[in-house]
């Protein structure tokens, strides 16, 4: 056996061992360079070929070619073995189910707002909108609120440096709608309102209201009660009754606060309604003539009612939420339930 045949056999055996020890593509490349690279063993051996006697050359040539392709095959096998993932860090298992993105959903307050608006739309109300940064005129003056009324106090309302305010109620939307539309008017205006309250279980510095306004000829308190009654039934079921209690608001006359029979005990009395059988919902009343005058409606021709709804309050009742701060903590474990 001539020396080249011998050298090729030794090299193939050594390369086999080295390939099997490889754990990454870089290791494989190092072995390739050692044997097949430009200054590697095989180019070196091919130089020795010319010194061989002609009768030895044939065997040496065949051994050389076979040895070289054996090493090339080992190299390919090792690379595909590494790619297939045995021992490699970047293994890809295409049969693994993907990671599902966690889907969010609408906030319970938004859901409930939509639900209320849908109920009022079925009763013929259309949706109106107004700015959250409001001027004092629309939030107080045009709503017949006297200059010394406590709700205007710095302690109660957020004033901006330019003299505007964060609206403390959705009632200014009444004014904006009446300023730009001739009667009859029938709107609901959902939105965010701001008050300088210390947050506790039933108060927040910002919360949500829906304002309702209906202006036409011959509108009465009975119309107001029937629309609230209809809303109560749609929202909480057929057994819920509405009660009006006398109250005062600067922009309605007469003014009422309205209650629903307790949705927890059905009116019998329980801790939620403090044994009264009723739960206070919000305020309402007949539009004050002074408000009509402020927007240029003739109070001898037009009559109307207005009402407010506190959405957080409706949510607390509907879902029995004991503390409204839960609605704003953004804890998914809480929000997921809706
Ligand atoms: N704006 C009043 C409030 O926030 C509620 C209300 C609306 C009262 C419409 C009467 C008429 O308390």
Describe it for me?
This protein is α+β, with helices and mostly antiparallel strands and 338 residues long. 40% of the residues lie in helices and 19% in strands. It has a 7-stranded mixed sheet, sandwiched between helices. The longest helix has 30 residues. The mean pLDDT is 92. Bound molecules: phenylalanine. The site of phenylalanine (PHE) has 11 residues, from strand 8 and strand 9.
Shape summary: rod-shaped
What's the average pLDDT?
92
For the largest beta-sheet, the strand count, sense and barrel status come to:
7 strands, mixed
Q: Ranges with pLDDT <50 over ≥5 residues?
A: none
Share of residues in strands: 15-25%
Going across the biggest sheet, name each strand in turn.
Answer: 1-4-5-9-8-7-6
Count of runs of 4 or more consecutive helical residues: 11
Question: Percent range for helical residues?
Answer: 25-40%
> Order of SSEs, N→C?
HHHHHEEHEHEEHEEEHEHH
Q: Which ligands does the model contain, each kind named once?
A: phenylalanine
For the record, give the distance between the C-alpha atoms at the N and C termini, rounded to a whole number. Answer: 85 Å
Structural class by secondary-structure content? alpha+beta
Radius of gyration: 41 Å
The count of β-strands is 9
């Amino acid at each position: 056996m001539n020396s080249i045949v011998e050298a090729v056999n030794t090299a193939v055996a050594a390369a086999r061992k080295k390939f099997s020890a490889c754990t990454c593509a870089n290791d494989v490349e190092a072995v390739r360079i050692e044997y097949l690279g430009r200054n590697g063993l095989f180019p070196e051996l091919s130089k020795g070929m010319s010194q061989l006697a002609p009768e030895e050359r044939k065997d040496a040539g065949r051994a050389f070619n076979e040895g070289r392709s054996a090493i090339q095959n080992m190299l390919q096998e090792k690379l595909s073995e590494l790619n297939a993932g045995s021992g490699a860090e970047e293994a890809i298992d295409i049969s693994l189910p993907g990671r599902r993105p966690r889907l969010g959903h609408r906030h319970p307050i938004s859901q409930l707002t939509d639900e209320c608006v849908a109920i009022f739309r079925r009763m013929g109300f259309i949706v109106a909108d107004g700015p959250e940064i409001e001027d004092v005129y629309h939030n107080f003056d045009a709503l017949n609120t006297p200059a010394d009324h406590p709700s205007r106090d710095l302690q109660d309302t957020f004033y901006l440096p330019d003299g505007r305010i964060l609206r403390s109620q959705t009632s200014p939307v009444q004014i904006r709608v009446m300023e730009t539309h001739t009667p009859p008017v029938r709107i609901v205006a959902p939105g965010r309102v701001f008050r300088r309250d210390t947050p506790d279980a039933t108060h927040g510095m910002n919360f949500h209201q829906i304002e309702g306004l209906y202006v036409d000829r011959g509108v009465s308190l009975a119309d107001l009660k029937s629309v609230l009654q209809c809303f109560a039934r749609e929202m909480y079921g057929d057994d819920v009754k509405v009660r009006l209690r006398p109250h005062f608001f600067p922009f309605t006359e007469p003014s009422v606060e309205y209650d629903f029979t307790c949705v927890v005990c059905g009116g019998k009395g329980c801790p939620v309604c403090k044994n009264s059988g009723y739960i206070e919902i919000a305020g309402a009343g007949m539009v004050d003539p002074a408000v009509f005058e402020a927007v240029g409606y003739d109070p001898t021709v037009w009559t109307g009612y207005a009402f407010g709804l506190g959405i957080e309050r409706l949510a607390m009742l509907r879902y029995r939420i004991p503390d409204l701060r839960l609605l704003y903590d953004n804890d998914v474990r809480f929000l997921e339930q809706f």
